[in-house]
């Protein structure tokens, strides 16, 4: 009398585990890349939201706003006082900013500037009409780099180059 058993042999189990390990080793770098790409996209979205906020303030308050980039990060502030404000008080408090760590950096290129790139201040202006200077913003961080080009008429940015590490 022979009995049929519905069970796996040790060899079959070891083969299934080996295949699972190989699949995981192939999939993990892909997942890491997706996570790094998402973090890069988030940095662009934060920067873009800050640029849109500067544009919105410029239109609603009818005064020039500027986005400034330095080693500490990116911040927006009013570039000129309101007409009803007297010269003694300044309303240049920074309503919002993006802080950057030591391994992150933003650079601003203004192709329409008549100054040499090394002499151009890292200040991007949004005028009362909602228009802005044409600009290219580069970001470098632990997850990779991106470059975004901003349309001067709409102030909307679009990623033109992205490299994930």
The proportion of residues in beta strands is 25-35%
What is the averaged pLDDT score?
Answer: 85
Reading off the top of the CATH hierarchy, the class is best stated as Alpha Beta
- Assign the CATH architecture: 3-Layer(bab) Sandwich
Contiguous runs where pLDDT drops below 50 for at least 5 residues:
88-94
Order of helices and strands: HEEEEEEEE
N/C terminus separation: 63 Å
CATH superfamily: minor pseudopilin epsh domain
Using DSSP, what is the number of strands?
8
The helical percent reads 25-40%
Query: What integer value in Å does the Rg equal?
Result: 26 Å
Please tally the helical runs, counting DSSP H or I stretches of 4 or more residues.
Answer: 1
Dominant shape:
elongated
- The count of domains is 1
Describe this structure in words.
- This protein is α+β, with helices and mostly antiparallel strands and 165 residues long.
- It has one domain (11-81, 93-164): minor pseudopilin epsh fold (3-Layer(bab) Sandwich).
- It has one helix and eight strands.
- It has one helix at residues 10-61; strands spanning 65-70, 73-78, 96-99, 105-109, 123-126, 135-141, 144-150, 157-164.
- The strands form two sheets. The chain has a four-stranded antiparallel β-sheet, with helices on one face.
- The N and C termini lie far apart (63 Å).
- Residues 88-94 have low confidence and may be disordered.
